[in-house]
Each structure stands twice: as structure tokens, then as C-alpha cells.
Write a structure and sequence with these properties.
Layout lengths: L18 H10 L3 H14 L3 E3 L8 H8 L6 H9 L7 H4 L3 H8 L5 H8 L3 H4 L4 H11 L30 H12 L3 H13 L11 H7 L3 H11 L12 H11 L5 H7 L2 H5 L3 H8 L3 H13 L20 E5 L5 E5 L7 E3 L1 H10 L3 H38 L1 H6 L9 H8 L3 H8 L3 E4 L2 E4 L7 E2 L8 E2 H13 L9 H10 L6 H10 L5 H27 L3
Parallel strand pairs: 2-5
Antiparallel strand pairs: 1-4, 2-3, 5-6, 7-8
Helix pairs in contact: 1-20, 10-11, 11-13, 20-22, 22-23, 25-26
Length: about 550
């Protein structure tokens, strides 16, 4: 086969991912908080972007205020005509002829004036006007935030958050106690290292073997410092596991006897409600083991949680769904989550006339293109969210009308075909977006559930509706008739839901519902506690006075 050279022309189509297209795709899957952060960065970076809510150019009010003090303008000329040498208005403060004559008249000596007034001058003019005004100003209560020492420039800058005290964290609270408990620098260094390892619940890692090696100290020194840290407030802090946390709190209460120690060391039996085994290990009777379990329940398994931790961010919905007047549903976007930005074309026009360098022109041309693209991308993002949310409401009308039991199986393809978009676009739009409805606030992903076949060949059921049905069956079961997974399968099939036993077990574990054996123990134990409490109350009431 001979090798030759030749020229060929081919025509093909390909999708080129430009930077603008990549960022437009990125905007679709951003949450409202991430989108706000992104827009704020663009506002700082691009001089041609500005917020649509801005009322006017910055500096307009100061210029107006400065014009009143301009002596060269018309105001200054007016002041020159109507004001005297001292700057007081002639029309408002000019002396009347009688006043001027009275001021020019010689009143005589102090004794003559007092004789004329028939009283002392101190009774008439007790103090100077300036001194009286200063005293009144001191006696007056502060009327503004600035006078109280808030540091603001005026009432319009009043900020209520300035009065909020800084929240004390667990690390700060322990560090304050550390500075008092130890005087040696080595012990303080070890203590601070251990405090930095404490999580928000107040626990240390189970293995501290590398702490001594990293700090260059002996294991005994680390253990000694740890023993002191475990006596800090709150009780139970700096424990390495739950048993140690409870033991520290019980020692603080002077209740850590051998029987309680055996109970704390076998918390797994307590979780399984194996009261008979616990009673045998602790060597106590039924009444004592019940009291001991009650004491354990009154302890705090996470002592560090009462201190300031990471604040939970309030979830703000992107879409509102409200009942319409015609019996349908009205879908609208939350305008508070939509950043409003504009392109300052006037500023660009002024700059284009003054810029002479080619590099500067290129920079502002790119800035104009990026600003225009961002405004269009934000508008397209809002329209796409509204279109997807409207289709979801149309598909899940039964859920909004009747509840979770009527949630239909839905996938991305069904919505994408209905609005003539790609599945990946719908997937990005529904990510990190929330919808506020008459039944609560849900993530848009919540409405996309798998389908479970019907037992009678009818319409398929939503997986979320099946989970809701399983939870209702378990919540309504009697303590004497606990439903096993096989029984739940039979009842679901009787309701027209074809489901396997392993699927029921998977849904039950996902909802953190224990097995039938564990539920039977829990409910029988709770019933026994209620009966014992009722019997003790009856015996107490029947005792002779």
C-alpha cells in the first residue's frame, strides 16, 4: 500500500465549551447563597456592573450638602446681601429700634441696677446662658445610639447587631480554665494541644498515642494533663468515648459505685434493652436497675453541644407554590434570592471617549461583554428554574392536594421531555434548590422518586409514598402485635404495592426504625415503666395519713 499526501476538506459540527457557556452551566446548579457570593465577586471585579437596587450615584448627597457652605455660589451671594458681619440673618435677628435704644442706654452701676430692680442681680441672672445650656445638655438623657457610645455616625446607621455579645465557644471556655489550672508552660502547651482536638460534642479522639510524640513529651505527662482537663466544666468534656463521658459525670455526682460502673461498661446491653442481663451483671434488683437507668438518662451524652457551634444557615426557598383562585397552583420565584444587576452603559460610553490606549479599550470591552453575559445568564437561570418548578407542580398535583401518600413516581427524563430540555439541565436546576409549599419546604430533588410496581398491574407507586406507608404501619402497631418485615410486605401487597422483603428492610433502616425484635423490647419496657409508675402512685395514695 503506497503512502501519498493529499488535501481534503471536511465539514463537521462540534460543541465548543466557551468560558461563558461553562459559567452559565455552573450558575444553574448554584444555590442562592453561592449565587449571591458569585455575583458579589463579579461586582467587585467588573467596573461596569452595578446593583439594580442602588438609588443614585454615590456622592450626590455630600455635594448637595457642600453647596450650602459654598461662599462663591448663589447661596453665598444671598448670604452677603441678607447677613450682617456676624453672619446672622438680618430679617430674622435684626434688632428693633426700641431694643437698639435700650442696649445703647447707660444702666448705671451694679448698686443702682439692684435698687431699680428691687432685688439682687444673682436672683435675676443666676448663671450665664452658655453655662445653663451646657448643664441642660449634661442632664438630658442620651437620645441617639451615638450618645450611648455605640460608635455609629447617627441614628440612620443604627445597628442592633452591635449589641449582640460574642458567642463563647467550647474551645474558648476550656482555654480560660486551662490558664488557671496550670502554671507551667509545658503543661499549658499539652493542654492547649488536647483542647484543639476536642470536637463540638466535647469528645477527644479515641487514640492519643501520637500526641506525646508530636509534643516531645512523655505519655505520663499527657495522661496527667488529660486527667485535669476531664475535670473542667462542663462535666464529661474531654472524654474519649461515651462510657468515659458518663463515668466522669457520675464521679462528679458521687454516684460511680461498682454497680453503676458495671452498667456504664455494658451500654450495648442497655441499648438492646436486655434488662435481665444488666440486672445480673450489676447484682441489683428490678427497682434499683430502673433507678440506675433513670440516672443514666439524665446525664448529658454530648456536653459540648451547649456551647456555641457552627450556626445553622436558614434555608431560603427559591420557589413559592400557593393555591390559585381557580383551584390550581400558582408558582412564582422568590425575588429575594435573585441578584439584580445592571450594565452601566453610560459609564462605558463616557470611558470609550476618553480612553486612548488599546490595552485599556480591550479591557473595558471585555468587561462590557462579561457584564452583558452575566445579566442574560441570570435571567435565563431564573426562567429555567420557574419552568422546571412549574412542570414539577403539574406532575405532582396529587401531592400538593392530598399529601405524601399521593406522590407519583417521577424521573428527570419526564420533566425534560415536557419542557424540551436536556436531562442534565434539569438535574442542574433541581440541585440545591428548594420549594416552599402548603405542606412544607422541600428540595426539588425530593419530588423525583423511583417507582414501585403495583400488585394488580395498575399505576406504579412512588418510593417516597411507600416509605410513608411503611412508617404509618409501624407507628400504629400495638405493643402486643409488633409487625415483622414479612407482615409489612403482606399488608403492602394487600394495598396493591408489590414490594420485596429486603426493600422493606432497606426503607425501614433508612428511616432509622429498629427491627421488630428491638421495637418489641422498647415498647414492652415503656409499658412496664408506665404500669410500675401507676402502681407506685396508687400505693402511695392508699397509705394511711
Amino acid at each position: 500500500m503506497a503512502l501519498t499526501q493529499r488535501l481534503e476538506f471536511r465539514q463537521s459540527q462540534s460543541l465548543v465549551m466557551t468560558p461563558q457557556l461553562m459559567q452559565a452551566i455552573k450558575l444553574l446548579q448554584l444555590s442562592n447563597l453561592d449565587l449571591t457570593t458569585f455575583v458579589e465577586e463579579e461586582l467587585e471585579r467588573n467596573p461596569l456592573l452595578e446593583r439594580a437596587s442602588d438609588e443614585g450615584p454615590v456622592g450626590e448627597a455630600p455635594a448637595e450638602a457642600a453647596s450650602y457652605g459654598d461662599s462663591d455660589g448663589s447661596q453665598g451671594e444671598g448670604q452677603g446681601e441678607g447677613h450682617g458681619e456676624d453672619g446672622f440673618s438680618g430679617s430674622a435677628d435684626a434688632f428693633e429700634p426700641g431694643q437698639e435704644e435700650w442696649m445703647s442706654k447707660d444702666l448705671g452701676t451694679r448698686a443702682e441696677i439692684e435698687q431699680t430692680l428691687d432685688t439682687g442681680l444673682d436672683n435675676v441672672f443666676s448663671e450665664e446662658p452658655a453655662e445653663a445650656a451646657a448643664r441642660n445638655a449634661q442632664d438630658a438623657a442620651p437620645t441617639t445610639y451615638t450618645e450611648w457610645g455605640g460608635g455609629a455616625s447617627g441614628d440612620e446607621d443604627y445597628n442592633l447587631e452591635a449589641f449582640v455579645a460574642a458567642e463563647t465557644t467550647l474551645s474558648d471556655h476550656l482555654a480560660e480554665q486551662l490558664s488557671v489550672a496550670f502554671t507551667g508552660s509545658a503543661q499549658r502547651m499539652i493542654g492547649q494541644y488536647l483542647i484543639d482536638l476536642v470536637d463540638e460534642a466535647g469528645y477527644l479522639p479515641p487514640d492519643l498515642g501520637q500526641a506525646a510524640e508530636r509534643l516531645g513529651a512523655s505519655q505520663q505527662e499527657v495522661d496527667d494533663v488529660l486527667a485535669v482537663l476531664q475535670k473542667f466544666d462542663p462535666p464529661g468534656v474531654c472524654a474519649r468515648n461515651l462510657s468515659e463521658c458518663l463515668a466522669i459525670q457520675l464521679r462528679e455526682l458521687d454516684r460511680y459505685d461498682p454497680a453503676m460502673q458495671a452498667l456504664v461498661e455494658h451500654l450495648d446491653l442497655l441499648a438492646k434493652r436486655d434488662i435481665a442481663a444488666l440486672r445480673k451483671l450489676c447484682g441489683v434488683d428490678d427497682e434499683d436497675i430502673a433507678d440506675m437507668i433513670g440516672e443514666i438518662r439524665r446525664l448529658n451524652p454530648k456536653p459540648g453541644m451547649k456551647f456555641g457551634s457552627a450556626r445553622l444557615q436558614t434555608m431560603v426557598p427559591d420557589v413559592y407554590v400557593r393555591p390559585g383562585p381557580d383551584g390550581g397552583w400558582h408558582v412564582e420565584l422568590n425575588s429575594d434570592t435573585l441578584p439584580r444587576v445592571l450594565v452601566n452603559q453610560t459609564y462605558y460610553s463616557e470611558l470609550s471617549k476618553k480612553i486612548g490606549k488599546d490595552g485599556d479599550k480591550s479591557y473595558f470591552t471585555d468587561a462590557l461583554q462579561n457584564a452583558t453575559w452575566l445579566v442574560r445568564a441570570l435571567d435565563q437561570r431564573a426562567r429555567t428554574i420557574l419552568k422546571v418548578a412549574t412542570e414539577i407542580v403539574r406532575q405532582q398535583d396529587g401531592f400538593f392536594t392530598h399529601g405524601v401518600a399521593h406522590l407519583r413516581p417521577l424521573n428527570l427524563k419526564a420533566v425534560a421531555d415536557a419542557i424540551q430540555m436536556h436531562e442534565s439541565t434539569v438535574s442542574r436546576v433541581t440541585a440545591n434548590k428548594y420549594m416552599a409549599t402548603n405542606r412544607g419546604t422541600f428540595e426539588l430533588k425530593y419530588f423525583f422518586t423511583a417507582s414501585i410496581a403495583s400488585a394488580d398491574g395498575g399505576e406504579a407507586h412512588s418510593a417516597e409514598a411507600v416509605r410513608h406507608h411503611i412508617k404509618q404501619l409501624i407507628d400504629s402497631e400495638e405493643p402486643s402485635a409488633i409487625l415483622s418485615d414479612d407482615t409489612i410486605v403482606e399488608r403492602l401487597r394487600a394495598s396493591g404495592i408489590d414490594i420485596a422483603r429486603r426493600t422493606v428492610a432497606k426503607y425501614r433502616e433508612a428511616m432509622r426504625i429498629p427491627s421488630s425484635v428491638q421495637r418489641r423490647r422498647d415498647k414492652q419496657s415503656a409499658l412496664g415503666n408506665v404500669l410500675s409508675t401507676a402502681l407506685s402512685d396508687r400505693s402511695r395514695n392508699t397509705e394511711p395519713a
